Amino acid sequence: FRRLTERLARTREAFTERIDALFLGKKKIDAQLFDELEEILVTADLGIATTMELLETARKRVKRENLSDPLALKSIIKDLLKSHLTVDQQAAELALPDQGPFVVMVVGVNGVGKTTTIGKVAAKFQAAGRSVLLVAADTFRAAAISQLKIWGERNGARVVAHQEGADPSSVVFDAMTVAQSKGYDVVLIDTAGRLHTRTNLMEELKKIKRVIAKHLPDAPHEVLLVIDATTGQNGISQATLFNEAVGVTGIALTKLDGTAKGGIVANITRELKVPIRFIGVGEQIDDLRDFNADEFVEALFT
Ligand code: GDP
Question: Most CB atoms closer than 10 Å: which of 187, 204, 240, 278?
Fold first, then answer.
């Protein structure tokens, strides 16, 4: 178990350490301080809109409370970031009901870390005593099927898979039958993420969703979109596409350990208005964390 602060080292260097350096040299709050702060926030991929909104709120508070100590401004920025990152704290954690199956359809572009995230989420739920069924509905790539099987072996979880090229919705049909008859608590469905044939992919995902709902009218209970934090604004554009097709209800943001632009977290919260459930901060099985805005901001600023 490595500490979140260490895993976010790249963002900390680019963001926190720059903010620290900025405030260290300041005796008073002035326009120049705000300008430099703006530059740092935008560079960390916080997004122009979020940055402007945040600084505007901070300016008002400084004026209203007649503050002159730069350190007071620093702690205001930290607090504003925390509250900004929280879409709805109550709804942020993916809470399982007592009675399953709880069906999670996992979507996202190839390479973002979908299969890895499924493996990690499976391990997390199993550790909490839940039975997990993995479903290989990306039948487009043989590698995707075998990778999911490897995670199944590693976790000791059953995997429902057909041959490469099979109809993804028939895999899901079988999986739902198994899940209901055997009473699995959680069903994690891996789906395809080929973007070059976008329309077909979205139709495929919609069909999968219909098949799930035929078995269980209120399912899928979660459509989890996996986004690679290193892709910045691109990830947000992808999100819009998936959201239009299948209605995203939660985000898993991966590879935060590999980027200096961890501010993307704020941008996603603002643009998508969907809670970030998990963050990926490495390739190991315990490198998936429940996202918690307070913890995240503390890890960046400590
Ligand atoms: P998929 O095509 O979306 O299923 O992506 P994969 O699950 O195969 O992941 C693609 C690559 O990203 C693999 O090498 C993973 O080990 C890596 N990966 C996934 N999540 C993370 C993460 O949080 N941090 C880092 N550094 N690598 C990750």
Answer: 187
Q: Are strands 132-137 and 250-254 parallel, antiparallel or unpaired?
A: unpaired
Question: Quick one: pLDDT at residue 87?
Answer: 62
State phi, psi for 161 to the nearest 5 degrees. -145, 150
The predicted model scores a pTM of: 0.91
The binding site for GTP comprises: 108-115, 190-194, 254-257
Query: What does 154-194 look like in DSSP terms, one character per residue?
Result: HHT-EEE---TTS-HHHHHHHHHHHHHHHT-SEEEEEE---
- Cβ of 255 below 6 Å from ligand 1: yes
Contacts of 154 (CB under 8 A, 6+ apart): 119, 285
Residue 169 CA to ligand 1 center (angstroms) comes to 25
Closest ligand 1 atom number to CA of residue 226: 3
pLDDT mean values, one per 10 residues, the chain (302 residues): 83 88 90 94 86 95 94 92 70 79 97 95 95 96 95 96 96 98 97 81 96 96 96 87 94 93 84 90 90 87 78
Contact 2, 257 (CB under 8 A): no
Closest CA to 120 of 155, 92, 146: 155
